[in-house]
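Hey, quick one: can you model this chain's 3D structure?
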Amino acid sequence: MKRRMIKKVLLAKISNWLTSIEDDEVRAIAKGNVIVSGGSIASMLLGEKVNDFDVYFRNKESCLAVAKYYLKKFCELHPDWESENSKTTKPHIVVDDAGRIKIWIQSAGISGEGSQNGYEYFESCPDDTAQDYVEKVVTEADETDSQPLEESTKSKFRPVYMSANAITLSDKVQLIIRFYGEPDDLHKNFDYVHCMNYWTSWDNELVLNPIALESLLSKQLFYQGSLYPVCSVIRSRKFIQKGWYINAGQFLKMCFQISELDLNDFEVLEEQLTGVDAAYFHQVIDYCKHRQASDSDFKISAPYLISIVDKIFG
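Sure thing. Here's the predicted structure for all 314 residues.
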């Protein structure tokens, strides 16, 4: 798909989403601070179907305002949450000492409207024509619902799934709160370079990075380094299944970064597994949490982790 068409798709999608925000102040804050980056632009450049549009925010103020808005919306859409859970377990926003924004959800760590796949940077499927594609991605109804609802009760861009790091809306929009900042700062947290093209809401500009385009044209994964190398190794299999190539040197870079991590530290392991196959790895984390709660001397070991992975993944 050409640059002009990609800009048209992104502008229409983000404009439609912004229009759905009922709070005028939140809408205004978001409008001037949205960055779309990641797999959606990669998919469009390859003429493939977009799984979802990853929306990032330019600064802490906009990220926090949007996160609070949709957390409130999610709770309004689930009024029985409060009656089934005490005030202390209700989801809420946490801002840590480093300024990172998280949604805190007790135990489950994730919450959704029916079943929903975990956060993925990139998914792709073949598409027919650019024009049909434009019409489809701009207007396509939500496909994440597992329970049938009356069409009249469905609102566009409603929150259907939340994790600590992202809020998934219907109609293929994902709000990433894990990172915020200018595009160059955001991309320091990206692992594979092909996802580093981006679009900005304040000037309707689409920036295509040469190194990202080279990776896309060759369908070769190039690892630039990441804070989450375990996640990157696991994510690589998704691309390989889609016909991408990765050389041994890229795995060596990931392995070396992993060697510098203390995966026996529960918090480190949990952080590294965030964002990949959430449903399965959440169970791994949950097993470790329960064991730790019952045994204060418990430490994660390779034999223990192997045993529960085999049990969960079969």
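One thing worth noting: Residues 3-20 form the longest helix (18 residues).
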